[in-house]
Specification:
alpha+beta
Length: 150
């Protein structure tokens, strides 16, 4: 697939409902896999790295393209659900295997990480990722087994 990019895409944007925290995103697009890492960092303390979060692998199901399969490679309880949801959304939309690492902390959001705050962050990450993945996204029928081979 010609959509592979040699260099990872790295960018940051504000964490929704947070005044001083940014989401840092690193997206690597290869011919047969997408790798995404997301984390948060406070603007006033850039040396304070977030601890490692969950790492999930998701891939499209050729028999049911609307329900990707996923497996947890590394699990940290506060981040596993968010990571799995993000990985499945990306796998479903791109019809490619996806690895997602997530160490986002919602502690600095206005209410400390409510469901609404997490969903806003998820929506923003998906939106930003899809902007960068436009050349990769294929209709479900184009990749019958999710690997780019018939």
């Amino acid at each position: 697939m010609e959509a592979a990019i040699d260099e990872p895409i790295q960018l940051s944007f504000p964490l929704p409902r947070s005044l001083d925290t940014k989401i840092h995103l690193r997206l690597t697009i290869k011919a047969k896999v997408i790798l995404l890492f997301v984390t948060t960092m406070a603007v006033d303390d850039p040396d304070d790295a977030a601890p490692m979060g969950s790492f999930v692998y998701a891939l499209p199901d050729k028999y049911n393209p609307n329900q990707p399969l996923s497996t947890t490679i590394y699990s940290v309880e506060p981040t596993i659900e968010f990571t799995t949801r993000l990985a499945k959304i990306l796998a479903r939309k791109t019809q490619m295997p996806v690895y997602v690492g997530n160490s986002i902390s919602f502690a600095s959001t206005g209410l400390g990480g409510t469901v609404e705050e997490e969903m806003e962050a998820l929506k923003k990450i998906v939106e930003v990722s899809f902007e960068k993945l436009q050349g990769v996204i294929k209709p479900p029928g184009d990749l019958p087994n999710g690997t780019g081979t018939p």
